[in-house]
Specification:
It is built from seven helices and five strands, in the order αβαβααβαβαβα. The protein is an alpha/beta fold and 196 residues long. It has one domain (2-194): HAD superfamily/HAD-like (Rossmann fold), CATH 3.40.50.1000. Strands 3-2-1-4-5 form a five-stranded parallel beta sheet, with helices on both faces. The protein starts with a helix and ends with a helix.
Length: 196
């Protein structure tokens, strides 16, 4: 148990970090509440270039890999909790090692949004990034050492959630047009080079 409690983690955003999302065209018959970024169909899931290599590299470096994702589509009513879990399951089946085992240790998602249409989920919540709830829950559930952990995401709120959970700001890596790193693979290479 001691070894597990001291395990370092890389927290990964899901959408537009590991899989394309905001650039996906609308579904054939979108829900009236659908907006770009709402992904409810696992058949539309594919990995971004470099995502598989990045996860394999991080796993080989000894990190737990935990996906943390806001899914306000549930609060808006354009997807269900079951849809989100089906998409996550598809991501898990795509991100596998050379023997076919999933590289992802756990998924955490926040179905809440303050501007939702579904009363059960229409509110602010500590799980919703930039709040640190998902990271802190993973820490407690998996026995993670946040002082040695990292976060990779494509939005400033991803990095803010990491800092709010107690991660060093230097370990919260922003990718894409707004970030220091081009993509998740570039960030993963940095993490593996500076792992302690």
């Amino acid at each position: 148990m001691c070894a597990q409690q001291s395990r370092a983690c890389v927290f990964l955003d899901r959408d537009d970090t590991l899989i394309p999302n905001n650039t996906l065209p609308p579904p054939a018959d979108p829900h009236p509440a659908w907006k770009p970024g709402d992904l409810s169909d696992p058949d539309r899931v594919e990995l971004l270039p470099g995502a598989l290599e990045a996860c394999r590299l991080l796993k080989q470096a000894g990190f737990a890999l935990v996906i943390v994702t806001n899914q306000g589509c549930v609060a808006r009513g354009s997807a269900t909790v079951e849809d989100v879990e089906a998409v996550n399951a598809r991501v898990s089946r795509l991100l596998v090692d050379s023997k076919g085992s999933s590289l992802i240790d756990a998924f955490y998602y926040c179905p809440y949004h303050p501007d939702g249409n579904v009363p059960e989920y229409s509110r602010e919540h500590e799980l919703r990034k930039p709040q640190p709830g998902m990271l802190l829950k993973a820490k407690d559930d998996l026995g993670l050492d946040l002082s040695r952990s990292w976060l990779i995401g494509d939005m400033p709120r991803d990095c803010e959630s990491g800092v709010n959970a107690g991660l060093s700001s230097n370990r919260c890596l922003l990718i894409g047009e707004q970030g220091k790193f081009a993509d998740v693979l570039a960030a993963a290479r940095h993490v593996s080079k500076h792992a302690d």
